[in-house]
Structures are given as structure tokens and as C-alpha cells.
Protein: Phytanoyl-CoA dioxygenase
Amino acid sequence: MLTDDQITGFITDGFVKVDRAFSAETAAAGREILWRGTGCDPDDPSTWTKPVIRLWDYSDEPFERAVTAPALREAFDQLVGPGRWLPRKSLGSWPIRFPSPEPPGDDGWHVDVSFQGDAALDDFLSWRLNVFSKGRALLMLFLFSDVGPDDAPTRIRVGSHQRLAPVLEPFGEAGTTMFDLHEFYTDSADLPEAIATGRAGDVYLCHPFLIHAAQPHRGRTPKFMAQPPLLLREPCVLERPDGAYSPVEQAIRQGLGYKRNLR
Structure:
């Protein structure tokens, strides 16, 4: 179980790291499958010709075992609320990052979108997010390889989730796209930065409004990490008569101040 301090840190900082959420053996079994998907030879770096190879949803047994790990299911209940999230059996997209002198081309600061709106199903660049985080309960970073400071760890702007909440509020339920928030990405550059390092089997659970970015791989060993969303059954509720706010909702309310104490 997450401790009270970890939950408080999630609310204020926007993320919590679950150490050894799943086993190193599960991670190794997953990497074997992913290596085949890349078409590269793990023993021959000359075949690692691209800085990033993107693979899509895998539901093989190691990935299902990882995402359904008891420690994570308990953490989902603690951060999102029992019955408020949708179980998963796969791990979404995989940006496999290789050591390379070439820029990866996808390392800009951003927040992940969460619902389709009027966009085409496959037009993810036009998907949207709103202050109620419709569709997304958490951003999750599943480390399937050891990730040190030189291994392209995800960059995180600490506390950016709370600062984003009042920016999203004027857009209402319709929300906005990630591209309409470019000014915010610049304005939040003063926030402290953390990096998502760890061992294979560690998982970062992040608030859905957390601003984050990739970076070039300067190490020697490819980085294997999945970044699936945990989905919400229904959008966040920011005014609950019973006051039973989840930590995800508490963070949004704190960012809104809550509506400056209802003015």
C-alpha cells in the first residue's frame, strides 16, 4: 500500500514511484517479446539504427501480469478510488529508445490528451483533455529495463499538474488539445524537474495533468518503457456532496484553489 506521505507527495508533486511493482523476471520476459517487435538484434548495436522505435499495444502474458500486479491495483484504488477506474490487460504504446547521436524528434514538453471529441479515432493529435480529466485517471510509466540518468528517463515538471488545472478550467467540458497549451509549457519552465529513473519492474503513477517530456538516449542500453493510461469510469467530480475526493481530484481542487474558496 502507498503510505500517507506517498499519497501527499502525489497530490503536491504529481507522481509517485512504486518500487518493484512487478518482478524483474516479468520484465525480462516482456523485453524478449519487445525485442522481436523492434526487428533489432539485442546483441548487435549496429542494428539499432533509429533513436526511437514505436510499438503498439501488447497483451501477452508478461504485460498482463505487470499491469494487474496486486501492488498496482491497490495503488489505483488509493489514488483514483475503488470502482472509479477501468481494469486493463495490456500496456498501450511503447517508445523504445536507443542510444543515438540523432535527436529523437518527440522530446517536447506536453500533457497527454484523454478523449476523442470530434476528432477521428486515429487522429490522436486532435484528441482533447478537460479539467475533469475525462477518460484518463492516471498516466503510468512502466519500466521494463533499468533506467539510469543517461538512459533517456522521462522528464517531469514537478507540480505542473496543479498549475495546469486553472488553465484548463475556462475550456469547460469541451476541453482543448495539447497544442493549444504551448504557452503554458513555456510558462511552467520555472518548475523543478525530476527524472523517472529506476529498475526494471518499477512503475511511476502520474497525475493525468502532469507535464512531461522524453529526452535523447545518451547511455548504452536501450530503454524499454510502456506509457499506458489508466482509464476512468467517469470524469472526475470536483464537487462531491459526501466530500469523498480521490487524490487525483484533490490535486485538481487544490490547483483551482478550490475556485478560490468559492470566491
